[in-house]
Amino acid sequence: MQDHIVVLTGAGISAESGLSTFRDNGGLWEQHSVYDVATPEAFARNQELVLRFYNDRRRQLESAQPNQAHRLLAELEKRYRVTVITQNVDDLHERGGASNVIHLHGELTKARSSRYPELVYDIGYRDINPGDTCDRGAQLRPHIVWFGEEVPMLEKAADIVRTADHLLIVGTSLQVYPAAGLVYEVDMDVPITVVDPGEPASVSRARVIRKGAAEGVAEWVDSLK
């Protein structure tokens, strides 16, 4: 049976494709506070601003390209069973060739009903505008897990981590909960590797590769050989 490689990815892997992050800008994203654009309260207060913000992010994403880290992780599927669990809302893993991706915080290329969360639509890189509604007449919103909302894929992700033979953590500081708690679901005998150029959060017994995502993932893949 093939070894199961589970990869946890965060903003650092997308940053190498030119996508900006809240954390790298002092809690601002294109000069917007997270509380202005990434909470249910913000959407209730200023729907037009929130929709415009995510429309801009979608256009930015359309012009971005997967980087070497995305492609190398996808190529691992030729030799291993691979599951990517990402905190990112972009589609760069899929466009890089990954076939098994769990999005903890939602997907920018999807919209869902603001009243009936089970109604989710693929929209690609199109805008969501005020007045765009679901099949039951409610306003559409980005299919994003905003601050203060539950993370519906978390338990599925935890179940997957428990089956890992290797755990690779790329581009995340492991400071954002509940996603950061996933690392503690892995069996004690499973090797953990953290790829992070800065000072990653302490992960006991983890090997740390202090390089950027593309360079660090390449080093780790070479070590598997």
Automatic annotation (TrEMBL):
A GO molecular function held by the record: protein-malonyllysine demalonylase activity
Catalytic activity, EC: 2.3.1.286
Domain Deacetylase sirtuin-type: 1-225
Alphabetized UniProt keyword annotations: Cytoplasm, NAD, Transferase
Catalyzed reactions: N(6)-acetyl-L-lysyl-[protein] + NAD(+) + H2O = 2''-O-acetyl-ADP-D-ribose + nicotinamide + L-lysyl-[protein]; N(6)-succinyl-L-lysyl-[protein] + NAD(+) + H2O = 2''-O-succinyl-ADP-D-ribose + nicotinamide + L-lysyl-[protein]
Ligand binding (NAD(+)): 10-29, 87-90, 171-173, 213
Residue ranges of coiled coil: none
Cellular location(s): Cytoplasm
GO cellular component: cytoplasm
Top-level enzyme category: transferase
Summary of the function given for this chain in its UniProt record: NAD-dependent lysine deacetylase and desuccinylase that specifically removes acetyl and succinyl groups on target proteins. Modulates the activities of several proteins which are inactive in their acylated form.
Protein name: NAD-dependent protein deacylase
InterPro entries for the chain: DHS-like_NAD/FAD-binding_dom, NAD-dep_sirtuin_deacylases, Sirtuin, Sirtuin_cat_small_dom_sf, Sirtuin_class_III, Ssirtuin_cat_dom
Species of provenance: Marinobacter salsuginis
Domain notes: 2 residues (Tyr-54 and Arg-57) present in a large hydrophobic pocket are probably involved in substrate specificity. They are important for desuccinylation activity, but dispensable for deacetylation activity.
Family: Belongs to the sirtuin family. Class III subfamily.
Catalytic-site annotation from UniProt: 105
Protein residues bound to substrate: 54, 57
Pfam families attached to this UniProt entry: SIR2 (PF02146)
Alphabetical list of PROSITE patterns matching this protein: SIRTUIN
